[in-house]
Amino acid sequence: MTGSPKEQLISLLGNDAVLPEEDLAPYAVDGLEPDAVVRPIDRQGISQVLKWACSEGMSVIPRGGGTQLNLGNVPDKVDLVLDLSRYGSRSPDHRPADLTATVDSGITLGVLQQALARHGQFLPLEAPLAASATIGGLLAANTSGPMRYSYGLPRDWLIGIGVVSAQGVETNAGGQVVKNVSGYDLNKLYAGSLGTLGVIVEATFKLSPVPPESRVLAATFPSLLPGMQASDSLLQQVFAPQGLQVIDGHAARQGATVNANLRGMGTANDTRGAVVLAFFAGRNRAIRRRMDDATKLLREQGALDIAGLDGSEGTGLLETLTDLGWSGESIPYLGLKLSLPPSAVVKLVNQLTDPATTSDEQDPIDLEPLSLGVVADPGFGLVRLLWWAQGADDGQSPADGRIAATISRVRDLSRRLGGSTVVEHCPLSVKKGIDVWGETTETIDIMRRIKEKFDPARVLNPGRFVGGI
Amino acid sequence: MERDRFIGQLRDIVGDRNVIFHPEDLLVYEYDASIDRGLPQAVVLPADTDEVSRVMALAYREGVPVAGRGSGTGLSGGAIAAPGGIQVSFTRMNRILEVAIQDRTAIVEPGVINLDLDTHVRRLGLRYAPDPSSQRACSLGGNIAENAGGPHCLAYGTTTNHVLGMEVVLEDGAVVNLGSLARETPGYDLRGVFTGSEGTFGMATRIMVRLLPIPEAVKTYLGVFNDIESACTAVSSVIGHGIVPAALEIMDATTIRAIQQSMDAGYPEDAGAVLLVELEGLLEEVDEVGQEVESALWDTGATAVKEALETSERERLWSGRKSAFGAFGHIAPNLYLVDGVVPRSRLTEVLARVGQIGEQYGITIANVFHAGDGNLHPCMLFDERQPGELDRVIEASGEILKVCVEAGGTLTGEHGVGLEKKEYMPLVYSQADMDAMIQVRQAFAPANMLNPGKIFPDGVPHRPAARRPDPTMSV
User: Fold this and answer.
1) How far is A209 from chain B (nearest CA, A)?
2) pTM for this structure?
3) ipTM entry
4) H or E element: which one contains B213?
5) For B48-61, how does the pLDDT look when each residue is reduced to its tens digit (9 = 90+)?
């Protein structure tokens, strides 16, 4: 083929599928504007684009709803953005009697949940900005939310997958049944691979019945540590909630800008406080028992106020918490995600909030004038540290060196506690100097060999994954 | 002689007593619980990771293929040595190293028996959920290799949903750690793809598993039906009520009679089928859901619904289910077990087809299966002394797998592909699909020294010998 990349793509897929040059700016990844953006509407188109890109030596950045685009290292190069938001107009193949569904990867989580709800079922997974987050993006980025304690991760619900390889060949793994050991479980490999091994075009999931009722308990505590301790105690009980989040006053205040329910928590004026949000789902009598027993325990553990919220308020809270750090104003200046053994979460919070317990002379997390918000999931073992610029202090941001030092201190801390830290948000100038996934381990050789086998020409998302894969 | 030198080197690593190489001693290592055979040239019993690593490095240098072996309960030939190969047996690596109560995790060696782990952690208020019916004998290392299932996987998922990480020795002896006690590890989910890799990627030498709290209450029902169709309808009805029980197991008339002949499990002998339903959770939950389950069973034509009121009664109901395979010895001297899976909603029609295939080939087929998962276990009961019978069984099993795949299902739900089903893989996967899988294996084991010749079709047809029903055999 001859002509500019754009002309060649037009001759492959037609005018409609290729964006005009003046529209490319919003598709930049880490400041790198693509040469072209192509939006195929079917698998054949996706396959054609990849075959072409592979033969031309072009790099391809797959893109779903664009909600997680800043995740990952700065790409080595951004030649072509493969926008999958127009792919997925087919309605989900929902098989309610089997409790399974097969969907095109371009469908959004929000649309899928609506379709499944018609038969009283849902996919127990969460993603920030569910109205725009696509299923392909959810899988590639391995998103989760406040219910991950009982839901688990995308890997736990994905039973079948269709992928177009970097060479443009469609392959499938898994199937439509909930138990399957025919061949290797490549579902696990693709989930969380950040689009570096293939472009996900189809996914089959196990589903769950929508619980008849859901409720939330919101309990305020004078500070983070007693809130964490009460949560740890609650999580050990038979009446434990199905999801639990502990957020500090700064995070609650940020959340309150979009969700009035967080405003009534007595934290708006005291950012030292903390809120424990316990999410319950199930049948009526069981929920009442859980709520009653949990209320009693939280009170004994020193909760200041405890409020019960109904199902729709709970849904709103789940959405607010899932989106926190990803939507509009709440996107932090620096955002870290720490994965830890559950019992290490309280230790981490202890060390963060009481610098005297650390061996460092320096406060490990002080990034004045930024303010730190903490969102912790002590049941699952996940903490998000979000540093926001105070509205009035805009323009005065900490030097890159200080930010990099903070990242490295938090990393040391999480490693000592048996976990890891991923940088989800940071200034581009800092990002250029680090691996957002952290130090690699001895497994990197196997990972590199997998990438080498699947995508030897490094077409897909080059440089963005661990160790620059 | 070459072999003597190699055996001597193995003995230098693990000690003289821990290498088995006399032909008569090797016989028990020739088979597992499948119908496959393969005599290893030696069996090595290492004591720790370092010994495993040195054994693997030696075998790698010598070009000797290696198969891992836990307890030898596998049903697809996963532990069978390749020609000229050795087995690494993990029976000496059987320690529970650590249980973290608050984190609900345990770290174990691969030779730990599934039920021993569960029993150990139950004293601490916890449980290990995956419960293959061979759990009294099978090892955690083997469970990982095969991604073992079990009746309670309906609610809790299979082994892969409970393994957090593992230390692995690769084919050249290198030791790597996959996953971690933290739930997310940056990078590809290598422990996820390792689980179920049937011993072709590496040997797990330390395993980190997730534990669950023991539920406050358990309720077990036995629904009695005139025929298997009604029992399947009951399964759909329970799921249709928005209920996902902890377990949903069906046994047909042939199975019921075989079991009742060997023990009194409490199943009515004139029943056409029975359905075991187990609920777990808070007292209020099992109470509320229990009422719904009971009415679902009656509404779909149950002739009786019994609730196990005492623990001993529940254990009796389950003990019948778990001893089904040994009990088939009352009906026929030989047994061949198929592990196909179909979407739940297709159970009735596929079972009807299975029945027709049995008639067509003149083979008695008993059905005992994980109905909630759509995981069939047609058991072909036959006598290998009758000329041609084994051939008919193998052909009929192929027919059944085709029917499962045509119904939107797959070849195996929990037993693995191994040797016996490798030639059927093209029924489910294209060459490109299998190529992608093989590429992953090449990343873990570039020289293909671990369990070569398994999982993927290579044109060497599988020709098994028959196997007698064995009381220790279970699924």
Assistant:
1) 5
2) 0.96
3) 0.96
4) strand B212-213
5) 999 999 999 999 99
